[in-house]
């Protein structure tokens, strides 16, 4: 299979996306969930049903869905299907324009799935497209920490799972991919701020929905020419994006971690606080599709975490 990746934003029509199913193992009790850094116990049968609903919703929207596990060599599949976090595919890689950057696991528990997925992607993409580094990847970079705002700018959190060293290593590749600015934020290091997309997300092409505390955090804006600091709303305004701050987030996963299917359609968790979408955002002109992914969310990630866009028109 040969794929021509193309992603310049978070809101274009989603043409091709990567997913994979949850693990074949249950997480039977709260102590086990805590030990593997999940929020709650998970029933694998319910998780599979949730995942099937998500895939069907994507396909109904006209999106081609690829399960990367289908392309693993036979000898790798037994391990892969037992990896608890394997369905959080967003972190594994990111398409910047027409360039694919591989991620680096921020925790040792996730390293095997990165190695396996990257071996698959080496067969999907040309060498000058997929910038594979293999064992040279020394610093973590999980792409739940990245939002592609538009053709000019990307927004990246350096926190628990993505290091500033990794960003320094990859920033030239991002500029070479066609972007002119990288906005860097450093979120508080807590479980509910694990990734950027648990704290903010693009709604269409001109609005960033963000948790209210983010208005107080400075952003370092990096270009080829240099660096400067500014507040988040000022960074966004440079790119004609409005910040919409909300204090009504009861669950960072279900409330913030939604997926734009196209400029007018958003795929959200049925557990999301509907006040945010119906009253605060007033999305009367947009279609909000709700799906039940509650069992999957107990692993600590939402719909966006479970999907890796390869092509957006």
Automatic annotation (TrEMBL):
GO biological process: L-arginine deiminase pathway
SUPFAM superfamilies tied to this protein: Pentein (SSF55909)
Superkingdom per UniProt: Bacteria
Gene3D superfamilies: L-arginine/glycine Amidinotransferase, Chain A
Gene Ontology molecular-function annotations: arginine deiminase activity
Pfam families linked to this entry: ADI
Protein name (database record): Arginine deiminase
Organism lineage string: Bacteria, Bacillati, Bacillota, Bacilli, Bacillales
